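anyone else get weird line breaks when pasting these?? whatever heres mine. first is seq + tokens for prot A
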Amino acid sequence: VQNEETEKELTRKVQEAQRDAARHAMTVRKLQQKLAYASSSSPSIEEYRMRIAELEEDFTTTRAQARDAMLERDALKRQVENLRRRAVNRKTASTPPSRMMSPPLLRSESNNARSKMNDFTH
């Protein structure tokens, strides 16, 4: 249960990081367009360049965080799957072989088996 909650939290963080990365990428594209249209003598060009550099750095950081969160989420998924397999293996190992081989008899089948046994004994 705790692993599933952690997995959900990591998935939420991954999605949030991906949204942030997409938003930063969009802002970078808009600023690059503005920069392309601005004249080279404009005093704001340097501001645009600095802002683009900041956003590109934020984008890179956010992408790395998203990648780390996805790796952690995937590792937790594998851990949960391994725990599930172990639980199934333990359950299977603790079940007596006679029960694993054949399903339980229905009441009518059980009665038929008893009557056949009685035929042999009498």
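and prot B, same format (seq, then tokens)
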Amino acid sequence: MGEKPLLMERDKEEIEDEICNDEEQSSEESSDIENMEDMDPACGHWGTATGASGYARSGTLTASTGAFQMHWLCRRCMQDRPLPLQQLVAVLEEQEEAMQAWWVQEERWQEEDLACQERVQVEDIAQEEEFWTDLLALEWSGSMSYGIKIGS
């Protein structure tokens, strides 16, 4: 009866540092933690906690309140841990979407490039044929006017 449970000997800051190592708790969360030490789990209301003998223990945590506080801190810590993982997953999903969009764009550019190359090649062939046709026409017209026969 005379000895205090280990949990009651610990300060709430020590528990907080051991479990979470979270130095960036908001003032609302820290006020919730401060208010927890005054919670009487037996009656479920805020105020001075009373022990089994019925006397008030000001400034100390009852074992069940301390356990509740520790559970609350553990739960808070565990809820914070998946957040960076969720952010990482979200970033990876965004990168995957960007990569897929890039591949679609790249394929479209390749198709446009091939179409442009084919169009340029067709135009080059058409210009070359026109050149040779014009050259032959000039040769025929020149040979006809001078009376020169082309070929044998």
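btw re prot B: Confidence is low (pLDDT under 50) at residues 22-28, 36-49. The CA atoms of residues 117 and 123 lie 10 Å apart.
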